[in-house]
Amino acid sequence: MFTVTALEPGEMTGRDPWRNDFFGRHAGLTVSGQLQAEIYALALGRVYTFGPTFRAENSNTSRHLAEFWMLEPEMAFCDLGCNMDLAESLIQNLIQVVQDRCSEDIALFDRFVAKGLCKRLENVVAHPFVRMTYTEAVDALKKSGREFAFPVSWGMDLQSEHERWLCEELAGRPVIVTDYPKGIKPFYMRVADDGKTVAAMDILVPGIGELVGGSQREERLDVLEARMEEAGLDLEEYSWYLDLRRYGSVPHSGFGLGFERLVQFVTGMTNIRDVIPFPRTPGSAPC
Hints:
Blueprint: E1 3-4, E2 27-28, H1 34-44, E3 46-54, E4 67-76, H2 80-101, H3 103-112, H4 117-126, E5 130-133, H5 134-142, H6 160-171, E6 175-181, E7 197-205, E8 209-216, H7 221-230, H8 239-246, E9 252-258, H9 259-267
Parallel strand pairs: 5-6
Antiparallel strand pairs: 1-2, 3-4, 4-9, 6-7, 7-8, 8-9
Helix pairs in contact: 2-4
């Protein structure tokens, strides 16, 4: 998490150095507006946010930025299946709009940037996405005969090479992977009856890997509190979030779609830094 402060380094002293800071407390740039959007969704039914988010992890890759834009819908009375249906429909409709309104541009990218782009996008719109559980994905990767840089085992976070193999070589189109181990997913995802997995889903697309990440949110107060304590979070800090469950809740879900990764996918560009006007990455923030 990036820290936001108006203090000079020499001023950060004492038991509570943040007391005299701009916000009067330790504050950071958000990696997501999801938790706040859940409040709006439970009040209004269906909402979304679209804005910049910030990633402090030192990921210097062709698909990571320190600052990027994300579209995040949140829906009340929506389970994991509903969440997947909406995300799939959103991607297909966005691509269809681009095909209808920007066909000449896509043809240009097809000719000079990514051969076969038009056909690939048509295939995404025309066919349903393949769906499989995390366990099924791991089994398929193990049986692939491929030697991956990161050997596959149940319980690990899938890497880009695994995600791309699933959608590019196994399925030949986007894949939705569900039911991830709870140990590698955040506290707010709904724990399954088996106690080992959560109602999470990632949408993987050819050439990129993960385009969408989402889940059904944990609406049970006792389970959510236990998960937060396991993660070492201060329940008092999140009392406003827990109140959503404490005073009654409903099944609800949401997801985040990385806008620059979507632009990459639609244009065939291979480096995410080429699809944002001012790329800010680890070690580089020129403007």
